[in-house]
Write a structure and sequence with these properties.
- This protein is an alpha/beta fold.
- It has 12 helices and 14 strands.
- The strands form 3 sheets. Strands 7-8-9-10-11-12-13-14 form an 8-stranded parallel beta barrel, surrounded by 7 helices. A 4-stranded antiparallel beta sheet has the order 2-3-1-4.
- α4 packs parallel to α5 and α7 packs across α8.
- The radius of gyration is 21 Å and the shape is elongated.
- It binds phosphoenolpyruvate and manganese (II) ion (MN).
- The site of manganese (II) ion has 5 residues, from loops.
Length: 378
């Protein structure tokens, strides 16, 4: 099996080593922008015939003024997002530069997250797997990492079936303090072993800022769970790393709340964010949650960030997960997250909603069919 470790941190590396030092670290231009309430964002759209020199000139001027610039290159033109304190930005003659077609303020409360800030969809790389392109990326794995045999067997089967990312929890947010809470560090080590065995990058949840340094040593992508979607100190801390973050929608959070929470992460300089719809609480009692597929096209229009759908928690009943996964692909999801377990009856969490490996494999074929029907691929 191919081996690769896509985590930028070698085990043992301190978190400080991935905190931003300069404005160009890890290819992310926007590091530590002002966090004042008055922060303002402007979008500069350049002319189709703008030259590289003109674009460089605009960007270096913006930097000289102490403002931040985020450059997005589309097929036809370049969009430059500018952020800084309102009073500082307002007085600058951004429209006067050669090569500029228009300058518009971002009026939305979520600025860096808004679609217009980039003018094109973003791709976020988890390990070496880009999410947000033509491919619908499948992530799968057990709710909880339980043992070496369990995680390796599941990782191998989902990888063979077509999943590109392994997801499993080592720190589990459980409704009851008496339920299985996850294996913690031992679980992270088992995930790293599964990554070595299969080459699949790993997503795992970080529940608390005190565990962030540890989780960063192992994860290729940090999951912030539904219950933590508005844990603003955690959001800021994950925003100070350069690992991708999958932010799950809170069960009582509006789409706008989700976007505002993502803004916390981007405002700390981390643009590598995936938004995950995982079902909301409604008056319905026949399903675990109500998967809000409305959120998919709305998010695709409102933000440049890739959208993941988790039909497993969204409906919470194994037999109905495949239908909702197919619907999520049809609705435009960039990635689908499915819980898979090789012995659901023995699972320490969420056994009733996970697919068996062969059910997952069958679903991948059907997802491929839907993806191709809408011009995407798996
Ligand atoms: C999970 O992904 O296993 C999980 C606990 O999800 P959520 O935070 O969406 O409930
Ligand atoms: Mn779960």
């Amino acid at each position: 099996m191919a081996t690769f470790l896509s985590n930028p941190l070698a085990p043992g590396t301190k978190l400080g080593a991935v905190l931003p030092q300069s404005s160009s670290q890890n290819g992310c231009e926007l590091v530590n922008p002002p966090q004042t309430a008055e922060a303002r964002a402007m979008i500069i759209i350049t002319r189709p015939d703008a030259t590289e020199e003109q674009i460089d000139h605009i960007v270096s001027r913006i930097h000289n003024w102490g403002l931040r610039a985020e450059v997005s290159r589309g097929e036809m033109r370049v969009v430059i997002g500018v952020i800084g304190p309102e009073d500082k930005i307002r007085e600058k003659p951004l429209g006067a530069f050669p090569g500029v077609e228009s300058v518009t303020p971002v009026l939305k409360p979520y600025k860096l997250v808004s679609y217009e800030f980039r003018g094109m969809p973003s791709k976020v790389k988890v390990g070496n797997v880009p999410v947000g392109g033509k491919e619908v990326v499948l992530m799968a794995g057990p709710c909880s990492v339980e043992s070496e045999d369990q995680i390796i067997a599941i990782a191998q089967s989902i990888g063979k079936a077509g999943a590109k990312i392994l997801r499993g929890g080592a720190f589990k947010p459980r409704t009851s303090p008496y339920s299985f809470q996850g294996l913690g560090k031992a679980g992270l080590q088992l995930l790293a072993e599964a990554r070595r065995e299969t080459g699949l990058p790993i997503i795992t949840e970080v529940m608390d800022t005190k565990d962030l340094e540890l989780v960063c040593e192992y994860a290729d992508c940090l999951q912030v769970g539904a219950r933590n979607m508005q844990n603003f100190s955690l959001l800021r801390e994950v925003g100070r790393t350069r690992l991708p973050v999958m932010l799950k929608r809170g069960m009582a959070a509006s789409i706008k709340d989700l976007l505002m929470s993502a803004e916390y992460i981007l405002s700390e300089g981390n643009f590598n964010v995936l938004l995950c719809e995982r079902g909301i609480r409604t008056f319905e009692t026949m399903t675990r949650n109500t998967l809000d597929l409305n959120a998919v096209p709305v998010l695709k229009a409102e933000t440049h960030l890739p959208v993941v759908v988790d039909p497993t928690h969204g409906i919470g009943i194994r037999a109905f997960v495949p239908a909702m996964a197919l619907a999520a692909v049809a609705a435009g999801a960039d990635s689908i997250m499915i819980e898979v377990h090789n012995a659901p009856e023995l699972a320490k969490s969420d056994g009733e909603q996970c697919l068996l490996p062969r059910e997952f494999e069958d679903l991948v074929g059907r997802i491929r069919g839907v993806a191709e029907a809408i011009g995407r691929q798996v």
